[in-house]
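INFO batch 0412 | record 1 of 1 | parsing
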Amino acid sequence: MFIVKHEDRIYELIFAECSRIVCGGTKEEDDRVKLWRELNDGLYWANRGCRLVENEFGILGFQVAGQKFNLYVLIRDHEDISRLFLLRSVDIPTQYTDNKKAVFEFVETLLLLRRILIVDLSLLFNSRTRGSDEGSSTVSSPPPNT
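INFO prediction complete | emitting tokens
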């Protein structure tokens, strides 16, 4: 989990769900649903705290299932519907290999995760909080001239 504090609020921007090196399809699917729920909660609280632009800000999640690394992003679109996207699914090189492509794809996926996190942090820190732009119903008048 990656947590950041912005204007006295704490936001969770990355969630992880990890399984054993040997896991079945049912366990993998259950963990994916569990990750989706965590991402949905994180996106709800981020949108509740800040006015974030739809289709730009996303909560990241990754799932380690067996020797697979799945990178997901959950984004809220213009119709206020949350959409989960599988960005990458790569093999984790757990032991020495001559397969340079597998290592390259894994490192590339980690760099993609980092790049999206940097963009999310920028969007979060440059957004307005929900309470900052709500108008006050109190009308103030200038002090009387005496």
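INFO post-check: The first strand starts at residue 2 and ends at 6.
INFO record closed
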